[in-house]
Every structure is written in C-alpha cells, then in structure tokens.
Amino acid sequence: MPARFEELSWCETPMGAISLRRRTDPLLEVDVYEVKLNDEFLMSSLFTVAEVELARLGLAALPTGEVDVLDVVDVVVGGLGLGYTAHTALEDPRVRSLVVVEALDEVIRWHENELLPDTAGLASDPRVRLVHGDFFAMTSGPGLDPLLPGRAFHAVLVDIDHTPRHLLHPSHAAFYTPAGLHQLTRHLQPAGVFALWSDEPPEADFREVLGQVFANDDAHVVTFPNPFTGENSANTVYVAT
Predict the structure, then answer these.
(1) In this predicted structure, what is the pLDDT of residue 67?
(2) Is 67 exposed, middle or buried, given 0-12, 13-18 or 19+ CB atoms closer than 10 A?
(3) How far is 143 from 139, CA to CA, in rounded Å?
(4) What residue ranges of the chain have pLDDT lower than 70?
(5) H or E segment to which residue 130 belongs
(6) Rounded Cα–Cα distance for residues 179 and 164 (Å)
(7) Residue 191: left if φ>0, alpha if ψ -120 to 50, beta else—which one?
(8) Is the Cα torsion angle 92, 210, 99, 52 positive or negative in sign?
(9) How far is Cα 13 from Cα 110, in angstroms, rounded to an integer?
(10) Interatomic CA distance for residues 241 and 218, integer angstroms
C-alpha cells in the first residue's frame, strides 16, 4: 500500500523552493498531486477544470468558417505546471505542434520522469517540445520557439500568474499592459488567439487593456464543484482574438 503522503520532488529555484507532493485525500479517497512554491500552494490535481477549459476555449476561438477553417494549428502554452492545459490541447486533432515554455527546469523533469499519472505521455508526444525559458522575456524578444526565431503561432495559452494583478514575480507585470500584449501579438498568426487563466473573477481594468490590443475579447467564468466547501468555486479564462 502506498504511503498516504509522499514528497515526489523538491528543489531550490530562483523563485524559491518548489515541491511536488502526492497525498491520499481521506475525504475523497483519491490521490491528490499538489505543487507548492515556498509555503504557497500553486496548483492541485483536484481543481483542474479551468486549466482544461483554457485549452478548449482558446482553441475553440480559432476560425471555423468554411473559408477560414484551419486544418493544422501550432500552439504555445506558457506555464507547464501539472500539464492539464497542454494535455487537453493535444486532444484537438488540429494541433500539429505544441511548444510549452516553463521557467523551472524541475517542473519539466516531473513530466519527463512521468511523475504525474493524469498527464503521463505528455513529454514523449512527438508533437510536443518542452522549453526551459522565461515566457515573458521570450515574448519581448525573438520569439517563443528558440529553434525558429520569429515563428508565429495560431494560439498562445497562458497559465503562470494567479491573476493579471497577483503575480508570481514583479517582472511579469509589464506583460499585462497594452505594450506587453502588443509584443505578444508579434508571435500570433492573423486571427490568432491569446487565452489566459486567472484565479479571480473577471477584472474590468484588464478587459480594458485587452480591448486596446485585440479586436475581440471575452471573459469566461468557469465554475466547478469544491468538495471542501460543498459549493462551486470559479476561475476566469480570458480569450482575445
């Protein structure tokens, strides 16, 4: 019988100590995989509905009309985490290639070593490249694919910070401004999609920023049951084209 609690990985990073833990939840009787950065919980395998919807809603916003329909799609995911957004994107038969940019090399190794059963096989999928890099620096530099500078993608799906205002690092703030998002559009195909996960309800000021850069934008409230509160919780997925 496996232990009820196990620390699968721990290391110091420039952002602090990151750890991956597995525990058996006594209430739900399931294994839960959790990520902590220092003493802060970043993500849990119990709450992945919005991470999944980030991929689904983002890719659903791509052109589908008879004239503009896309047979193949190239995607970037900013932030690997537990891998649910990237794993879901691969379920779309149009996805030809997926570049996942992750700032912490240790997180990439979790997937290469298949420590996460729900997203096992992600790192070995021939369509996927896991890139160790700073997503935000790459958007303002030569591009999101180190092997092909200047490459443009059909969709960029981002799940890194808690919200556009609650950041993991102050250096990320410039990305969530009109100038920062204009830099991002250089890496999008015409009619390309930018989608962003947020832990909080839609923010009017960020919608205003999106409206200064993109032709269309929306904020989808994604609800999911919370077994600990007995009520629904919610995240937001912003989608801009």
Answers:
(1) 43
(2) exposed
(3) 6
(4) 1-2, 65-70
(5) strand 128-132
(6) 14
(7) left
(8) negative
(9) 15
(10) 9
Residue 99 and residue 145 in contact, taking contact as beta carbons nearer than 8 Å: yes
Amino acid letter, residue 53: E
Angle at 51 between CA 49 and CA 53, to 5 degrees: 70
Residue 228 confidence (pLDDT)? 79
Which CATH topology does 47-240 take?
A: Rossmann fold (3.40.50)
Structure tokens, 132: 């160790």
At 27, the amino acid letter reads L
pLDDT at 69: 58
CA 177 to chain centre: 19
* DSSP H or E segment with residue 212: helix 204-213
The pLDDT of residue 215: 97
Rounded distance, CA 141 to CA 179, Å? 13
pLDDT of residue 66: 44
Token pair of 106 as six digits:
């240790």
DSSP string of 188-223, one letter each residue:
EEEEEEEEEEESSS--HHHHHHHHHH-S-EEEEEEE
The tens digit of pLDDT for each residue in 150-171 reads 999 999 999 999 999 999 999 9
How much is the pLDDT for 3? 77
